[in-house]
Amino acid sequence: MYDRVQKIASDLDISIDTMPEIALRYVLGHPAVSTVIPGMRSVRNVENNMRVGDGLGLSKEQFEKLKPHRWIRDFYRG
Hints:
The protein has four helices and no strands. With 78 residues, the protein is an all-alpha fold. 1% of the residues are buried. The model has no long low-confidence stretch (mean pLDDT 87).
């Protein structure tokens, strides 16, 4: 898992600290999603999560860079 996260951060040229924001923007970028309920342990988390709701989402370039990182899991085949 660590290596996957490092590769994503490297491909997007972001710091690991930015990953939660990128994840929320990715989810909110899907047209079927209008709301997310992220965990919030501190006022700083709340403020950061609120900024993600700015409607900007991810750029097309970022979405394209994330496509190869799709993690296909098959829960039905043990």
